[in-house]
Every structure is written in structure tokens, then in C-alpha cells.
Please model this.
Amino acid sequence: MKSIQSRLLMTLLVSFVLVWSFMSVWLLLDLQNQLKQTLDQRLAASARMVAGLVVQLPAQQLSEGPQPDAAGSTPQFQAAMLDGVACQVRRSDGELLLQTNSDMALVFENPTPGFSEREVDGINWRLFTYMQDDIMITTADRIQERQALNRGVLTAVAGPVLIALIAMLYATWWGIRVGLRPLHRLRHTLAQRDARDLTPIELPMPHELAPLQHSLNQLLQRINELLAREKRFTSDAAHELRTPLTAIKTNVQLAQRLDPEDAKKVLREAEASISRMQRILEQLMLLARLDVDAELEIATPVQAGVVIAEALADISDLERVQVEGDTQVKLAVDGSLLAMALRNLIDNALAYSSQEVMVCVTQRDQLVEMSVRDFGPGLNHDDKRQALDRFWRGGNGQGSGLGLSIVQQICHRLDADLKLSDAHPGLRVALTCSSSPSKPFTCSKDRI
Model:
């Protein structure tokens, strides 16, 4: 693909050549027409001027006509203002009265009134015949001289036009190079950058290129944030998986030294560590998917009861879960993601409380609130803030510490509101989202 500079230069070159050629041809044709009219007017003016001179001559001299000189030739009529124009004066009956050139009898033979053209001995003539009473005045000039004059005018006009066109093309080329310098500076800056340098680009840019630089800086910022999330995810995963892997390794090595009965107990502990590591991996994979996925498909309305049923599908301690409220209300969110968030809340409530857990659905106007309440020790103000951090665990140290972090990420994706509040006793966690696709709900990220 050609460069922008080449395409611009070629486009302007073709445009200038076509436009200037059209204008030059138009002006030249118009100039030739004006020149022809001017020369014709000169012929007509010369004929009328001779007519005025003839009127001033004595009638006797006109009746005598031109007298032969001593050599026997007819004298020529001299008039300085007729330079370049041949002239002949006759009577209407054909009698020759005056003429400028005696060798042009064929040129002036049988002229017709007005303008006409004829060829004599390979020479083309332009004639004008003027009638005054019984006097016929005919003037003529060579068409070749007119053509030579046209060529001179063409040379005089085409030269400056061609020079101006070349100068315009050079100025356009120079202007394009100057105008594209910011792009060249941007390309050079990017080429000189280290692959790990994702800092914003700060270059002086014209108004037309400033949005490009802004969009590029936004892209660099998003890449930087993505790399930071991946680095944090890798670090957190390595940190959290180290403990269960160490426990599994220790239990397996210990089981090899014990008798079968004691080894079974140690292997059960190893199996519990494996289950914990599996849950951690599942939570980490879910967090990675939520971090990477940029957009959600348009959600179809789903009933709250369907979401709750999907959330309770993998809960083993179902007898401790109580569901209240209007489960028929429809939600305008992705049901699968909302079920994941609700399942994490129920898992946390069951883990931190030995009593029952309440799941309640409440509709207010176009908003639907789904809350999970436990009757455990609850969280103080500082713990509520930290509870949303990845791998934070409460006082008993249970779980992977990813549940509420995943819920917060899902709420951000669903444009839902997450709120933690005291239930006296216990903790109440509420998810609020829209029940109507036509009235989206704006998330309040600071409501905790």
C-alpha cells in the first residue's frame, strides 16, 4: 500500500494538471476567439477608414483612376495606417480605382460583402468588403500571420502557466511533507521506544492528529492495566497455591511413612487440600475471565427464581438456605453471571455462619434487590473494606478469599450495586440491578 504522502501528492498532482489544463485550454480558446474578433475589427476599421479617405478625394481624381507611370505600371495607394493590411477600392461596376498591391488581383477578385476567406497560390486570406454608395472597399490580411500571432500568444501564455503549475506542485509537495511531520515524529518516537515502555506519548500535535495521540495513549493505558492485572493475578495465584501444594506434598510424604490406618487419615487431609486448591483454581479462572472479557452480550430477561435455582445447584448444605420474596420478578441482566455472584455470597454465608442463611428478593420500582443474610459474627467497618480485596479472609481464615472479589467484579460487569451492611446479628450483602432493559441502572461503586 502506498504511503499517505504518495497518495496525497499523486491525487493533487492529477487534480492540478487536469484543472489547470482545462482552464488553460478554455482561456486559450477564448483568447484566440478574442484575437480573431480583434483582427476582424481591424480589417473592418481599415475598410471604413479607407472609405473616409476616398470621400475626401476629388471626384475628378477618382474618375480618372490610377494613371500608369513612366514604366507603364499602375502606382500603389500608400497609407501608413494600413500596415499589414492589403486594400483595394473599386466601383460597383468593377472599375479599379485604388489598390495597395498590384499582384493581389486574384485575392480581390469578385469579393462578397462582409467577411470571407479564400486561398490563392497556397496562401490563405481573410477579407472584408465594405460598400459605400457605388464604391466597394476590400481589405485583406494573411491567415498565416494570424496563426503566427496565435502561436506567439500561446507561447506567452503557456510559459507562465507551466511555471506556475510546477511551482504549485513543488509547494504542494513541500506542504504535504511539512504537514506530515507530526506523523513522522510519532512513528519515530514509537520505533525508538522499548517494548516495556507504556507511558503516555506527549508530542505537540495539530488539532487533527490530537485525537489519534489521545486514542493511542488510551490504548497504552489499557495495555498497561491489563499487564498489571495479569502480573497481580500470577503473583496472587502463585502465593495462594503454594500453601495447598505444600500441604499435599507434606501429607503424601507423611502417608508413605505411616501405617495404613494413619495414612488414610493423612490422605484425607491431602484430599481436602486438593479440593481447596481446586476451588481456588476455579475462582482464579473466573476472575481471569472477568478481567479479560470486555463486553457482554445483550441479556434477555430472566426470572429471579431461575437465577436462585442455578446458584443453589452446587450448594451441598441446602437445608440451611431459606428463600423469601417475589421470585417471579424478571431481571434485565446476564442470569449466569448473576447466579455466580449469588452462589459466592451463599457459600461465604454458609462458611462464616453455623445457622441458616436467608436469600431475599425485593422489587422497588424498576430495581430488584437480591440479598443474602447470615447470622454469624459479621464484619466491622474496616473488615468490610478489606473483604472486597482478593485473597482476604475473615477471622476464621476459611475459604480462598476470592468470593467477594468475584462478586464485586461481576457487579461491575452487570452495572449492578453491591452493598455490605450489618444485620444485627450477622452480615447482609445486597445486589441491586435493573428489572427493565429500557431503564438501565447505574452502578454506585462506593456504596459499601
In short: Residues 210-291 form a domain with the Helix Hairpins fold (CATH 1.10.287.130).
